[in-house]
Amino acid sequence: MHLGELTIPAGAGLAPMAGVTDAAMRLLCHEQGAAWSVSEMLSAKGWLYSQGKNRNARELLARLTGEGIAALQLFGREPELMAEAALELADAGFEFFDLNFGCPAPKITGNGEGSALMREPERIGRIVRAMTDAVRVPVTVKIRAGWDAESVNAVEVARICEQAGAAAIAVHGRTRMQQYSGRADWSVIRAVKKSVGVPVLGNGDVRSGADAVRMLEETGCDAVLVARSAQGNPWIFREIRAAMAGESCAPVTGRERVETALRHFELETQLHGERGGMLEMRKHIAWYVSGLRGAARFRERINLLDSAEAVRDALREFALEAEA
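RESULT FIELD:
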């Protein structure tokens, strides 16, 4: 797949998730076969107003050696501010920009940003045009099926984005009002693919290698994005690569899951410090151990620990138990 002059290898991409897809998560998924990834979303206005002094924003921009191709995702509703932020961030080390027109969170849509912009297609076009005129790297967009079931307008928005210079369009097959409930409507992805000439990326309900292959076949999309199914499960990208090649994939052992959680923990402390990494990892650890014997009790124990070393010891002990 080509985004302008950028070549994306075969495989699935890691979709953006707030509070999840930092450099540590992106690196682990890349090592397991993710073709590319997208950062947590960054407010263009917030970046400009803080003049880059916000610690959380600086941590969001961090990259780790070996994490592969990654996009920096921006959100906002003012075209001129989006372009200005992109210019300032053009040298941040990301291979391309992604624009968020899909986030359903009330604190985002309440400001007329994220998926609320699906109700303002013309403004989306102005944002995309401002961005593509401002930077030389590819600019992609992430949209939803629409705002609600009565206003499914992904095809209209996708055409506007293509005309404004978007290099690719990612489509989540749910409306904003669905949030993450119900089933993703893959027919919307198929309709967008038939309506534009740029690459279309399918997103929604890809939980396995078989799902990824089925989405590619049913929608004709150029690639798939994986979001929640990668939480605590970077191996899904390995599984998808195998399924696309018609091969089987060895199951992940309990010990491998816990040892990967331990490595993830070390990467998070590298990014956020000992205490910050410990707090960041609580949700990840819960995802990694889900389904293992004693997982519920272990999650409760982890949430009560107050030092990074105690968390390390607990993970090492649980790894031995998982192996046994």
